[in-house]
């Protein structure tokens, strides 16, 4: 990805003959690089940290995930292939539930491109109006998620997901500005989970907070004091 952006700089800024209609500045390329770096690194490591914390607090889910990983590893001959990672359905459910509870991005921001009458209501969103979509609150609304503080990956089984209206799951956003790194993030997180959960039991330690205290990080949220856990090697 870095390589592609460096190539974009070379082709679109320094030597812009290929797309005469498009003008890109050095700043466009630099800001995209920064967005890739911030958007690509921190949400993945924060989500994995929160996920391990939830697993330490929910032993039943952790054990079920470990069994699932073991079964899928055996099925795929112990290889870390794309097929193996795509087959980790329960890990997907665990990670989605982690993101529902602890998504670093707490709102989505939009500007209306045309005037829109919200169906069955008197609400009119005018063209040009700025809109804040409160994803943190939506993901914790008991109307869609009963007992929202409870960590329950079963909410993301295909049956449960199909019961919720569209727009109630905005873990990676929605529409044309949907997160471009979703698939990469999911692969990275499943690879990390698979390695850690198959080799270690994740336990709380004396420094573990529950719930984890949060800090405002420029419109996003992050663990205020980090996430502290104990990893106990699994001896087979
Ligand atoms: C757990 C990991 C991640 C989460 C929870 C996450 C979440 C999000 C969310 C909620 C948005 C806003 C989408 C919208 O407005 O509809 C977004 C946008 C974006 N994400 Fe991610 N993201 C993650 C990982 C990544 C990774 C790994 C990359 C890149 C390698 C990435 C790159 C981006 C970019 C470039 C945008 C802006 C897209 C646009 O405006 O068109 N993200 N992400």
Automatic annotation (TrEMBL):
<dbReference type="GO" id="GO:0004497">
    <property type="term" value="F:monooxygenase activity"/>
</dbReference>
<dbReference type="InterPro" id="IPR050476">
    <property type="entry name" value="Insect_CytP450_Detox"/>
</dbReference>
<protein>
    <recommendedName>
        <fullName>Cytochrome P450</fullName>
    </recommendedName>
</protein>
<dbReference type="GO" id="GO:0005789">
    <property type="term" value="C:endoplasmic reticulum membrane"/>
</dbReference>
<keyword id="KW-0349">Heme</keyword>
<dbReference type="GO" id="GO:0005506">
    <property type="term" value="F:iron ion binding"/>
</dbReference>
<keyword id="KW-0408">Iron</keyword>
<dbReference type="GO" id="GO:0020037">
    <property type="term" value="F:heme binding"/>
</dbReference>
<dbReference type="GO" id="GO:0016705">
    <property type="term" value="F:oxidoreductase activity, acting on paired donors, with incorporation or reduction of molecular oxygen"/>
</dbReference>
<keyword id="KW-0492">Microsome</keyword>
<dbReference type="InterPro" id="IPR036396">
    <property type="entry name" value="Cyt_P450_sf"/>
</dbReference>
<comment type="similarity">
    <text>Belongs to the cytochrome P450 family.</text>
</comment>
<keyword id="KW-0472">Membrane</keyword>
<dbReference type="Pfam" id="PF00067">
    <property type="entry name" value="p450"/>
</dbReference>
<dbReference type="InterPro" id="IPR001128">
    <property type="entry name" value="Cyt_P450"/>
</dbReference>
<keyword id="KW-0256">Endoplasmic reticulum</keyword>
<keyword id="KW-0560">Oxidoreductase</keyword>
<keyword id="KW-0479">Metal-binding</keyword>
<feature type="region of interest" description="Disordered">
    <location>
        <begin position="149"/>
        <end position="169"/>
    </location>
</feature>
<feature type="compositionally biased region" description="Basic and acidic residues">
    <location>
        <begin position="152"/>
        <end position="163"/>
    </location>
</feature>
<keyword id="KW-0503">Monooxygenase</keyword>
<dbReference type="InterPro" id="IPR017972">
    <property type="entry name" value="Cyt_P450_CS"/>
</dbReference>
<dbReference type="InterPro" id="IPR002401">
    <property type="entry name" value="Cyt_P450_E_grp-I"/>
</dbReference>
<feature type="binding site" description="axial binding residue">
    <location>
        <position position="179"/>
    </location>
    <ligand>
        <name>heme</name>
    </ligand>
</feature>
């Amino acid at each position: 990805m870095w390589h592609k952006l460096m190539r974009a700089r070379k082709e679109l800024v320094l030597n812009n003959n290929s797309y005469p209609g498009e003008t890109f500045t050095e700043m466009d390329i630099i800001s995209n690089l920064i967005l890739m770096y911030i958007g690509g690194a921190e949400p993945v490591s924060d989500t994995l940290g929160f996920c391990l914390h939830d697993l330490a607090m929910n032993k039943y889910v952790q054990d079920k995930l470990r069994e699932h990983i073991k079964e899928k590893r055996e099925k795929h001959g112990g290889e870390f292939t794309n097929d193996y990672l795509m087959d980790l359905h329960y890990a997907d459910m665990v990670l989605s539930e982690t993101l529902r509870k602890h998504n670093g991005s707490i709102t989505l921001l939009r500007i209306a491109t045309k005037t829109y009458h919200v169906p069955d209501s008197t609400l009119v969103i005018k063209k040009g109006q700025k809109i804040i979509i409160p994803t943190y609150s939506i993901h914790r609304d008991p109307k869609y998620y009963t007992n929202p503080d409870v960590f329950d990956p079963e909410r993301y089984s295909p049956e449960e997901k199909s019961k919720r209206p569209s727009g109630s799951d905005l873990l990676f956003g929605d529409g044309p500005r949907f997160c471009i790194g979703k698939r990469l993030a999911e692969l990275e997180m499943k690879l990390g989970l698979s390695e850690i959960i198959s080799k270690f039991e994740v336990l709380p330690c004396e420094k573990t907070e529950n719930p984890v205290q949060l800090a405002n990080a420029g419109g996003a949220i992050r663990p205020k004091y980090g996430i502290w856990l104990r990893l106990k090697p699994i001896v087979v």
